[in-house]
Amino acid sequence: MLEKQLQKYAQLAVRVGVNIQPGQTLFINAPLPSAPLVREIAKKAYEAGAKHVHVEWSDEEITYIKFKHAPEEALHEYPTWLAKGREEVAEKGGAFLSIYAPNPDLLKDIDPARVAAATKAASMALQHYRSRLMADHNCWSLIAVPTPAWAKKVFPNMDEDEAIAKLWDVIFQVTRVDQDDPIDAWKAHNEKLARIVDYLNNKQYKQLIYDGPGTNLTVALPDGHIWAGGAAKSTDGIVFNPNMPTEEVFTMPHKDGTNGVVRNTKPLNYGGNIIDGFTLTFKDGKVVDFTAEVGYDTLKHLLDTDEGARRLGEIALVPHRSPISQSNLVFYNTLFDENAASHLALGKAYPTNIEGGTNMRTEELLERGANDSLVHEDFMIGSHELNVDGITKDGVREPIMRNGEWAISI
Amino acid sequence: MLEKQLQKYAQLAVRVGVNIQPGQTLFINAPLPSAPLVREIAKKAYEAGAKHVHVEWSDEEITYIKFKHAPEEALHEYPTWLAKGREEVAEKGGAFLSIYAPNPDLLKDIDPARVAAATKAASMALQHYRSRLMADHNCWSLIAVPTPAWAKKVFPNMDEDEAIAKLWDVIFQVTRVDQDDPIDAWKAHNEKLARIVDYLNNKQYKQLIYDGPGTNLTVALPDGHIWAGGAAKSTDGIVFNPNMPTEEVFTMPHKDGTNGVVRNTKPLNYGGNIIDGFTLTFKDGKVVDFTAEVGYDTLKHLLDTDEGARRLGEIALVPHRSPISQSNLVFYNTLFDENAASHLALGKAYPTNIEGGTNMRTEELLERGANDSLVHEDFMIGSHELNVDGITKDGVREPIMRNGEWAISI
Ligand SMILES: [Zn+2]
Ligand SMILES: [Zn+2]
Ligand SMILES: [Zn+2]
Ligand SMILES: [Zn+2]
After folding, report:
1. How many angstroms is it from B374 CA to the middle of ligand 4?
2. What are the E-state strand segments in A215-270?
3. Full residue range of the structural domain in which residue B89 is found
4. A87 plus A167 within the same structural domain
5. Predicted ipTM?
6. Is there a contact between B74 and A52 if contact means CB atoms under 8 Å apart?
7. Core-most of A33, A291, B12, B120, by most CB within 10 Å?
8. How many domains does chain B have?
9. Which of A35, A79, A85 minimises the CB distance to B54?
10. Does this model's pTM top 0.80?
């Protein structure tokens, strides 16, 4: 049974996620426990005509051992050849599939300064590669698999096997693998998201206003901003799905135009550390004050990464009654939690979210209001108490969301 | 119990195998099932002062899927960046630990031409890296772990868990991990091998003569040949152990000086295919005729890799009563089988086996009689029926081995 579902999931990742084309290289980032799925994905990728399938395995225990025992200076370095490898594959038109299953508690006893150093070193080394992907120069996709640590975090009262089986059920449900024809179901889902995207793109609101418990925020949108959601199209014209599951529609804010305060509604798992119960106060786009009940140091290191880490790069709307949200679970996994709640992201904006952005240099993007940073970190602010309004160019205030649900007719 | 043994094994690999020095990078090649050992090795390596520990994982099922499904042209390519990565680590003085656990039957239904193409592509891409290691410019070591497929091949009548446990026992025994102080035991073992090495180096035989069932071979040794065995010393002066276990003493033959016929005594697992019951006929150093009861095509592809693949690059002597041999098992794993029997190797010679060799260019090495090739493949010819004689420079014939045992007094 699981084997058949795994095959359907693999097929979905290959055909709908990265949408492998004949002759392409598929580069897979995979944690060790995902091996059974990765093998199915490799088979399906070759079936779809892939030339090479390269798997870059990772082991969270080796990661932990590094953070625990490596000398300080090692954490400031990232292997050049490993970064160059991704760039080489990207420049030759490869596709990138990441299997995402972070352990929320992995680094809880590690000094956040050590984690921050390593995160920054990796971000710097991988900057060129990540920029290519964020501009959709390559097809890429993010999917999840249960790992023992993640499953136990989501279902703490179950034993390990039960928790893993239950988490598989949830994953298969929200990625539509449990439906007869998942590929068809994704087509319908992408069409639904496209209708919301079209509505918002036609409106070209100049501001959004967020109102909820602890949240009172005004966000300016740049001229020519583009809402996106569901399927994306690479610069070579290949349609792919960057996230599975996905329920969001998103655009870029103007990097200098956010004012007010926002409070998170779900814990954020930042590189193996939890940040929760936090508020950010913005003035002219920049975080000028912040608090956190959990993970204050980790949040501080995130905000101090660089100039752009204190500004927003993405605003995303997700109805509170999304399938993932209805599960009433906290996943401690951004791929899931961001698609269960409206969210914002600190850091780099997607160049695809502004007209002509994928052909602009960084300076031009900055001038147009697109934020730049080594980081891009989503955090969840949606709930059944969130209201969102749009301000049109004529100054008219219109409801977009009420009590966490769409207030627009599409 | 296993955990404690794993820790001792890890410590041995780090301290005696690659002998990690402070500030070094340790690069580990590891199959997925070796994860528990690799984690212990990473801990011990950081304890010993390693700066970075990088693990390059491999999965034999992914390898099989590639050979089964990838397009033909893909098999002729090896990722440049992956080869460059090893070179970068090597040039910066890194140490290399390979965990070796090949599945003898992995590729038995794959066309040998496909396997040969991929093997050659990898050898070409990794040529610079492998040359560095064969000249001991970096510390390197090869150790083994049981995998389900390998364990079942060695112990076909046991169930999987029992076979794995039994194979661990054998590994711990032959690597001396079962002794109270394995590091001390290796010191004593290396001293014993050094006495044989000294004896043979003092003799400077000009020829060896092999005599056994199906074997009648004369091998010329080049002037200034060096016998080696046990611990090696890197060009930076670090003592390390390239193979664990190791029971051999070895030197290089003159590439043009082998004549006669030789028959193998144990099956050879060449990249996932078995070659067995084979004979090679040499004339002036070159294989001019060959037969094989099993794996004829695989042997043909090996011999056809390049000019040097038809000539010998190593001759090694192992007493028949070596600890590994006494287990009376066939391991289908060259690391074990070569240390259970006298053997020869087709292909590249170790530059360390001739005076001044590690500073010579390929042309000079060839001139001195050292063979060069993309391959270096050991095959076993020892048994309780093998006799080996040496011919001194004065033409005196002296016994070296009788009935597979040392006939020299050391
Ligand atoms: Zn988002
Ligand atoms: Zn985002
Ligand atoms: Zn050997
Ligand atoms: Zn050898």
Report:
1. 13
2. 215-220, 232-233, 239-240, 249-251, 258-263, 268-270
3. 2-174
4. yes
5. 0.93
6. yes
7. B12
8. 2
9. A79
10. yes
